[in-house]
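User: Predict the structure for this protein chain, please.
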Amino acid sequence: QASCSSGEFLAADGQARGAARGAQPHLPAMIPIMSPSASSITTLPEDVRQTLVHIKWCVFGLWSFGAVYFVLQPLSALSTLVLAIFGTFLLHEDPQMTPCYNSLREMVGQCCGNGGMTMLAPFVVFSVVNAVLDGFQLAQLFYLFGGRMFTSPIVDILVGIWVFETAAAVLSWRVLKAVAPTLPEPGGDYQRLGGGAPP
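Assistant: Here is the predicted structure, written as structure tokens:
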């Protein structure tokens, strides 16, 4: 057979994704890994804001490829769409993201907080996890089918998703390293209750 049929790929896709999910550490569906409070994105250094612009294009790519992937593989596409939602909340101050953000707020409510820099850590974590799992899945499919796998449109979509996830992971990690020194120390707002003896 000269090409990888959709049915053949879907069967292997389920096996590869199952193996990848089996290697994934247990994470709740929506883990509240909120970053410490940070200033508005508009007050960040110019180089950091430029990196966020690049992340915005990654989020657009995740929405585009994720929507198509959802039509073909609804369950498999959920992690990509969750990452796109996190990215939209992260960049909600961007004029191009604001309409999508407002629509999502009406649908999902307060599950992601108010967005902004509090979503940076969740976005980093999920982009890294998704990139690793989807990269593992692609490696499994390449092992099974070799170059024939690229004849399947589903594989092309998955490759596009993996590229944007990897780029988002690298870029968001750079932003996290850049802004981390400016964030308050954990417990910095702690105040001793009155009436007690000092430790």
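The first helix runs from residue 6 to 22.
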